[in-house]
User: What shape does this take?
Amino acid sequence: MGQKVYVVDTNIILQDIQHLYDISDKGSNIIVIPETVLMELEEKKKLFNELGYHSRAFARLLAKAKTKEVDHKMYFKVVKMVVDTMELHLISKDRYESEMLEHNLSESNDKRIIEIAEIAQHYYKGAKVHFLSIDIYARMFALLKNIKAETLHDDRADVPEFHFVKQITLDSNYFNALPFAPIVSYDKHYMPENFCYTFVSDDGNTAHGIIADQKIDLVEDADFHGLAVRPANLKQRYLCKALLSNRYDLVVVDAKAGSGKTLISIASAMRLIDQGFYQKIVYVRNSIESLDKGAQVGFLAGNEEKFRIYNMALYDTLEFIAKKRIKRYENKEKEESIKSKIDHLMQKYTIEMLWPGEARGRTLSDAVVIMDEWQNASDKTTQLILSRLDESCMAIVIGSNRQIDNLYLNRYNNGLTTLLKQTKFSQEGIKIFAIELDRAVRGKFAEFSESIFEHKR
Assistant: This one.
């Protein structure tokens, strides 16, 4: 097939440095790092977040590299290096055609990177030169210069269709035998991803159940008595039942906005603590705001007020639960009563807010760990948080692949999707439950906006 030359954009490295090893194919291909990419990585290496981590990882990679040759040309320079089995070439240009525009620095950098790709086309005679970027605009700039542009292969991988909920028809005579019966007795086509079942009969009987250890655990109204917030629809009931059963180590929820995923998770976690299964709730929110702004606000453990804006989903949830629990109060004392109740809930359930950047070196025990907005988390961050949990924890991972804000991720390669894909297989040593919440429950505005905007496409 011949040697390939890959000119890589900054976002390839910032997503995961492992991509460089994959692209290199054990030294079969050459990886070109434009000077502008080095400058962008230099700027980000001081950040205390995932982007900073990958920038520093690349710096460590360069520190190990050995220089083979420095090739000085008339208007550019190529530094040829080898690290492990990888061949890295750094290319700089004496003078760039693209002006540096302060109001649009990103576009200026993109165009300068493309200028290096143009040089590579002439420099590596006989080799196939590819520009590799996650950014569609950068790839379009390359195509306009007649440069072959690609994205990562992972970006093109299909996300499989999931079948978390199934419906089967049974004779009414079998309904009494359903509790804790093996699911394969009723569904010979059962698969590991079939976590929820609706059983119906021709004469009108209906039963619902979740599958744990391949056995049927029926969903009953009594399961939700005493909850501060009761599930509002069938899929919420499935999720709530799975959480309250405490039979799963990892619960993964892909849910649209307003579907109640955070509310059900928090309310169920409180019930589990009341029952003595866990001692605290750890809330981890991986939003794009926390990635970009965390270092700027100087967030450290204990600075909840300074970082409050990034955890508003948690505060809104606690406020909703507080209002449910407050039966009577005078209008003048309403605000104070709600705030007092929220503070009480925070203390009673030892609710801790954890920013992903401060998780390294920690071990979490006896906790329900809620990982929110996980469509904005990479595989590296997912591994980081899950590896902090010991066997006494439960992890609830919630997010929406309809709302990805991280520029370095998409619906194919984020941490939420990676975990959802694992539901296709039987797992050794860990029990997984997953469900999709596809119905908004916030009320008329959520339903109205969904009806005109989502169905408009």
